[in-house]
Design a protein that fits this description.
The chain is an alpha/beta fold. The chain contains 21 helices and 31 strands. The chain is rod-shaped and about 155 Å long. 40% of the residues are buried.
């Protein structure tokens, strides 16, 4: 026959008209495994390991009930009571405690209620998701409200419309807060430490997409085990040592830890379990980021342990505020003045490392009961109300206000009068759900308490920096906040200037990157086979920049700007054109003016010696026309220098083309005249009739007229105009003349090239005529120079950019004009000026 289960070792009862149930999480029972061959004995004191700091949760519930009962306006003529059991962090004890709350108090009679005077209005608990889940499995059947002060468990078969009343923010808000913290400090290479259970799996599934989308990678993911029986301690120690060594060997300086409320107890074990020898005195340090359900807790045996691991860690904590009178209430507690509190004796013995004298075997110091809670270190017990205690305190008031509204509703509706006054019907308390959803009030700390549509308290999270002093005292510094009611861009706030980092970082903000940041001017290139946070840095290609760290791609500057040398920002392009002030412009201008002057001197010399044989030879008028056209060609080059204007753009190509066509056609006419003259001297030749000025002028006019027609069509259809070229030169905005029609431009040049080739060909075939009577050899050489210049011009012009294109064309104009002038007229000027004796008809005939 199955006997009754062992009654819980720890319980706290206070009677009242209505009572609140509480499932605390304070004690581990570390025992040998159960083999089910005999009845399991009740746990002994030696098997108890207390998380002493969690005793504050129990006191918060008792203090809240005390305040409610002292408030004459909240529940007049009604008293609240409570009954609290310990879950012992196990499913079995949690189920037992829940059923003891629902049925007859103090007796295990499942599904029977033998004490109608004790009416349960709701249960507060639990601290960890598994505890809450085990409670909900039972409470949900009876529609009893459950107010949890830890993360909400996943319960797919929960009765629709009956939510968990969650006294802490939803975990999703916490995940986005952690992500914001990591991004704020640019920590993109982090480690994850969780416990190997379904809650750890759910945490990883939740944060993976959030973190990855924000560019955060995982250097490692470690899964730790807990133990519930003695046989598994060694296994846990061995695994914990390996986890510690892998964490410390990692390049990641930031570790996000997620686990149950007592996780810090195991975390403090890690340095003691390491298999690595300490070869230096340099402290090992990581930035630990703890989630909100974790608290800074310790077991009693860890009282004197070094707390270097915790120093500088960042905790997300459920928001709390100072509740008036709570510290005085805790300070007044001692085992001698509390009745019904079955938790305080074991708490007292473990917190103060003493024993009460009524224990059979007294080993160690005797507990006097006069010890002060204020002297306990923070991990064992804190005098400031923690976030979880604040949530328990608020949960009591939530139930009280819901009951208050329910009473008001019942008074207006269904009530029964007897001699003692009002007798409320208590059998319909499940209706409290409809009132709990709409609860809204200001608590004694002055904060608004209300639920959203999902049964989650609309509150935020505090970010705490734990600082451990050299004397091992602990200080909690609030450095930031996650505000659920603020706009998304203002929900996360932090004051980094007051953060104390782990001593290993010398108070310099730690870096946690797989690869050093790519500085502006370079971009990230992901390494094949590695996470996207591990990359190499490559410089931006020509013409592009990156102006921030760790950019994935370079971008092109706007067309008015260009990259600087480091390619990390854009600078305005300078306007560029072939200027009269720059050395190249000065040189070309000087060249043009000098040869204009030389041409004028040659023309003057020829006109002075107008009637000499060498001037009169080979058609004097054509010689003057050629010199005049050359005199105009050199100044034409000046139209290409200076900032392009509408007039200069219209004139530069047309004036150059027409003048050059006149010059080349003059050379062609002179050559044809010489050829016809020699052909006419042959006996019986019919060429004599072609000799004369009519033919020469016809050649010049016809050839020039064709070029003029091309230019007029060009100007009439698509004339050149001032333009801006922002693309040819990376660092300059080129002010240029847009030729309008490229076809007409090349027609202009092509026709001039055609004339030059014809003239060169005719002169080449006439080069062997007697030199004393013609200048075909000079014309041949001059046209060879002319054609060489313009043949070289084509590839040079095509490959040049910006103002250098203009410079190439200007130089070609000057060089080809100078070639004609020098090759044709230099020998004649030599004779006219230096050898006048040769400038006689007899000398020319003799030659």
């Amino acid at each position: 026959m199955l006997g009754d289960p062992h009654e819980p070792l720890h319980k706290y009862h206070q009677s009242g008209d209505f009572f609140i149930g509480g499932i605390a999480s304070q004690t581990f029972i570390i025992s040998s495994p159960v083999d089910f061959t005999q009845e399991t004995p009740s746990a002994s004191y030696e098997e108890l390991a207390l998380i002493t700091k969690n005793y504050q949760h129990i006191l918060a519930l008792a203090f809240a009930v005390k305040n409610v009962n002292e408030n004459p306006h909240l529940l007049p003529n009604v008293t609240l009571g409570f009954h609290i059991y310990d879950s012992y962090f196990t499913a079995r004890n949690t189920y037992l405690a829940t059923m003891l709350l629902i049925y007859t108090l103090g007796r295990f009679l499942p599904n029977y209620k033998c004490d109608p005077q004790n009416t349960l209005i709701g249960v507060i608990g639990g601290l960890d998701p598994l505890t809450s889940l085990h409670m909900a499995t039972v409470l949900d059947i009876y529609k009893i409200p459950q107010l949890i002060y830890g993360p909400a468990p996943v319960m797919n078969d929960k009765t629709p419309g009956l939510p968990f009343y969650q006294m802490v923010p939803p975990e999703k808000q916490q995940y986005t807060g952690i992500c914001s913290l990591l991004l704020y400090f640019r920590w993109t290479w982090i480690g994850i430490l969780t416990f190997n259970d379904e809650n750890g799996d759910r945490f990883l599934e939740a944060v993976f997409p959030i973190f990855s989308k924000s560019g955060i990678c995982f250097a490692f993911i470690e899964r730790s085990h807990t133990f519930s029986v003695v046989d598994k301690i060694n296994e846990m120690f061995e695994q914990g040592g390996k986890i510690h060594d892998r964490i410390m060997d990692s390049k990641a300086n930031v570790v996000v830890a997620y686990g149950p409320s007592y996780s810090v107890v195991f975390l403090r074990w890690f340095p003691h379990l390491s298999g690595q020898e300490k070869v230096t005195n340099k402290p090992e340090g990581k930035v630990w980021i703890m989630t909100a359900q974790m608290e800074l807790t310790s077991m009693v045996y860890q009282r004197t342990w070094d707390a270097e691991t915790i120093h500088g860690s960042l905790f997300f904590s459920v928001h709390s505020n100072a509740v008036p009178g709570f510290q005085q209430f805790m300070a007044s507690r001692n085992p001698s003045n509390t009745t019904g509190d079955g938790f305080i004796r074991d708490f007292w013995q473990q917190a103060f490392a003493c024993v009460f004298p009524d224990i059979n075997e007294v080993v160690g110091e005797i507990c006097t009961g006069k010890e002060k809670l204020e002297i306990l270190p923070e991990p064992l017990f804190g005098m400031n109300m923690t976030g979880h205690s604040y949530s328990v305190y608020n949960a009591v008031y939530v139930l009280s206000y819901a009951l208050h509204v329910w009473f008001s509703f019942r008074l207006r509706g269904k009530m029964v009068m007897d001699r003692r006054g009002l007798k409320f019907q208590k059998e319909c308390l499940w209706q409290l759900h409809s009132f709990l959803k709409d609860v809204s009030f200001n608590n004694s700390a002055g904060e608004r308490i209300s639920f959203n549509q999902n049964g989650e308290l609309t509150t935020g999270l505090d970010i705490i920096n734990w600082v451990v002093s050299s004397n091992q005292s602990f200080h909690a510094v609030k450095i930031g906040r996650i505000d659920s009611l603020a706009p998304p861009d203002k929900a996360f706030t932090i004051n980094e200037s007051i953060i104390t980092w782990h001593r290993a970082f010398n108070q310099i903000q730690p870096l946690s990157l797989c690869t050093e940041s790519c500085y502006p001017g370079s971009i990230k290139k992901v390494k094949e086979g590695e996470p996207f946070c591990c990359y190499s840095c490559i410089p931006c290609p020509d013409g592009k920049i990156s102006d921030q760290k760790d950019m994935n791609d370079c971008y092109t500057c706007t067309k008015e700007k260009h990259p600087n040398k480091k390619r990390d920002f854009c600078i305005h392009k300078e306007k560029s054109f072939l200027s009269f002030e720059e050395p190249l412009g000065i040189g070309l201008t000087s060249f043009a003016l000098a040869f204009t002057l030389i041409t004028a001197l040659v023309l003057g010399t020829f006109m002075k010696h107008h009637n000499t044989p060498i001037v009169k030879a080979n058609n004097r008028d054509l010689t003057y026309l050629l010199l005049v056209s050359l005199l105009l060609c050199f100044p034409c080059a000046l139209l290409f220098i200076g900032q392009p204007e509408k007039v200069t753009c219209l004139l530069r190509q047309t004036a150059f083309g027409i003048n050059f066509s006149v010059a080349i056609s003059s050379v062609l006419a002179k050559t044809i005249t010489v050829i016809l003259a020699f052909m006419a001297t042959k006996p019986g030749s019919g060429m004599r009739k072609w000799i004369g000025k009519r033919l020469t002028y016809s050649i010049v006019i016809a050839c020039s007229l064709i070029q003029t027609s091309i230019c007029l069509v060009w100007l009439g259809t698509s004339p050149p105009f001032p333009d801006v070229d922002m693309h040819s030169m990376a660092e300059e905005i080129v002010l240029e003349c847009n030729e309008g029609s490229v076809t007409m431009f090349y027609c202009d040049l092509s026709y001039m090239g055609f004339l030059a080739i014809v003239s060169f060909s005719v002169a080449f075939f006439a080069r062997n005529l007697p030199g004393g009577f013609n200048e075909t050899k000079l014309i041949t050489f001059s046209m060879l120079v002319f054609c060489s210049v313009w043949i070289s011009f084509i590839p040079t012009y095509v490959s040049a950019k910006g103002k250098y294109m203009v410079a190439v064309e200007t130089f070609s104009i000057l060089a080809s004009s100078a070639g004609l002038l020098a090759c044709i007229f230099a020998p004649k000027c030599y004779i006219i000026v230096l050898r006048p004796k040769l400038n006689k008809k007899e000398q020319l005939i003799r030659r």
